[in-house]
Amino acid sequence: MKIEQVKTAFKIGGSGATGGIKSTLEIYRDGGVKGRPSIRSFGVWYFLYHTILQSKEIEFYMIYQENFEKEVKGLFGLKKVKNVSISYKFIEQCCVEDYLSVESEHPEWNVQEQGADWPLEIKNSHAQLQANAQSREKKIKRKEVRLNK
Known about the structure:
By secondary structure, the protein is mainly alpha-helical. It has one domain (19-124). The chain has helices at 20-30, 39-53, 88-103, 111-114, 120-135, and strands at residues 68-74, 77-84.
């Protein structure tokens, strides 16, 4: 699969990122060049970036699942919780199953789900990004945990 061959940009995915959809899409703004993105996050950014370079249109859609009231198990039995949410993975799984029922194959950018390998140009660029991350000055954002001895 080459970037130039992509006619319809399509990816089904989900995220449980703190900060919601805004935080989820943040990686796609700069490809994670300030961090150490996974090959999947970087690969999808790479596809998006090259789609934009070709002046193709990109659209994002979101499915939102309302929270609900449910009894949840705690240490001492069931407790009524008013704002329960389900894992995004269930929504993603339902969407992928729906897509497969119509198309009989995974969306083009769902590389891992296809059992395929990332294009070499993406793997090489990702490896270079990871190598660069090792040589950057690290910012310490958290205090070190002290062990009581």
